[in-house]
Amino acid sequence: MQINPDITLLYILGIFTFAMLVMRILIFKPILKVLARRQELTQEAKAQALSLQEKTESMVADYEGHLKEARKQGLHEKTKLTQEGEAKANQLLSAARQELESQLQVHRQNLQAQAGEASQNLRVQAKDLSQQMAEKLLGRKVGV
Prior knowledge:
The chain is mainly alpha-helical. 92% of the residues lie in helices and 0% in strands. 0% of the residues are buried.
C-alpha cells in the first residue's frame, strides 16, 4: 500500500496552518501573555515578601536591642535605687542608734543622780532610825 499525495493534502495543510495561526493569535498568545504576567507578578510578590521579611527581621532586631537596653537600664536603676534605699536605711538606723544612745546616756545620768540622792536620803533616814532605835532601847536621848 502506497500513499500518493494529492491535492487534499495541500488543503489539509492549508486548513491546519490557518487553524494554527488563528489559535496562535486567539489562544496561545493571550495565554502566554497571561502566564508571563503571572510569572512577573509572582516574582514581584516574592521579591516584595523577601523585602518585607528582611525589614521585619531588622525591626525585630532593633526592638530586641531596645528591649535589651531598656532591661539593662531598668536593672541599673533598680540597683541604684536599692543602694540608695540601703544607704538611707543605714543612715536612719545610725541616727536612731545615736538618738537612743544619747537618750540612754541621759537616763543613766538621771538614774545615777537619783541613786545618789536616794542613797543620801537612805543614809539620813538610817541615821535617824538608828538614833530613834537607840533612844527607845536606852530610854533616853542620844546625841550624835
